[in-house]
Amino acid sequence: MIEQVLSRHNAALRVEITVKTLISLGIIALAVILPQLVHLASSRRSQAGSRSL
Protein backbone atom coordinates (compact mmCIF):
# COMPACT_ATOMS: atom_id res chain seq x y z
CA MET A 1 0.00 0.00 0.00
CA ILE A 2 2.78 2.43 0.88
CA GLU A 3 4.70 1.28 -2.15
CA GLN A 4 1.75 2.12 -4.40
CA VAL A 5 1.37 5.61 -2.97
CA LEU A 6 5.07 6.33 -3.35
CA SER A 7 5.14 5.02 -6.91
CA ARG A 8 2.11 7.17 -7.85
CA HIS A 9 3.97 10.27 -6.71
CA ASN A 10 7.18 9.16 -8.48
CA ALA A 11 9.12 9.43 -5.24
CA ALA A 12 12.88 9.12 -5.37
CA LEU A 13 14.58 6.16 -3.73
CA ARG A 14 15.87 8.38 -0.92
CA VAL A 15 12.34 9.61 -0.16
CA GLU A 16 10.97 6.05 -0.24
CA ILE A 17 13.56 4.89 2.28
CA THR A 18 12.91 7.89 4.52
CA VAL A 19 9.15 7.40 4.50
CA LYS A 20 9.38 3.68 5.17
CA THR A 21 11.89 4.26 7.97
CA LEU A 22 9.68 6.85 9.66
CA ILE A 23 6.64 4.57 9.43
CA SER A 24 8.64 1.68 10.90
CA LEU A 25 9.92 3.82 13.76
CA GLY A 26 6.37 5.00 14.48
CA ILE A 27 5.08 1.43 14.63
CA ILE A 28 7.94 0.38 16.92
CA ALA A 29 7.30 3.36 19.20
CA LEU A 30 3.61 2.46 19.44
CA ALA A 31 4.50 -1.17 20.16
CA VAL A 32 6.66 -0.03 23.08
CA ILE A 33 4.48 2.79 24.47
CA LEU A 34 0.95 1.38 24.21
CA PRO A 35 1.47 -1.66 26.48
CA GLN A 36 3.09 0.57 29.09
CA LEU A 37 0.13 2.95 29.01
CA VAL A 38 -2.33 0.08 29.35
CA HIS A 39 -0.45 -1.35 32.32
CA LEU A 40 -0.25 2.08 33.89
CA ALA A 41 -3.98 2.60 33.51
CA SER A 42 -4.84 -0.87 34.80
CA SER A 43 -2.56 -0.50 37.81
CA ARG A 44 -4.23 2.80 38.73
CA ARG A 45 -7.63 1.13 38.51
CA SER A 46 -6.57 -1.76 40.72
CA GLN A 47 -5.06 0.62 43.28
CA ALA A 48 -8.25 2.69 43.34
CA GLY A 49 -10.30 -0.45 43.89
CA SER A 50 -8.13 -1.65 46.76
CA ARG A 51 -8.33 1.74 48.46
CA SER A 52 -12.11 1.63 48.55
CA LEU A 53 -12.10 -1.82 50.12
Report on the structure:
There is one protein chain. The protein is mainly alpha-helical and 53 residues long. It has one domain. The protein is 89% helix and 0% strand. The chain contains 2 helices and no strands. The protein is rod-shaped, with a radius of gyration of 20 Å. The chain starts with a helix and ends with a helix. The model has no long low-confidence stretch (mean pLDDT 87).
Structure in a nutshell:
The protein has 53 residues and is mostly helical. The chain contains two helices and no strands.
Q: Secondary-structure blueprint of this entry?
A:
Elements: H1 2-8, H2 13-52
Poorly predicted residue ranges:
none
Q: Shape, please?
A: rod-shaped
Beta-sheet strand percentage? under 5%
Average pLDDT figure: 87
Count of alpha and pi helical runs: 2
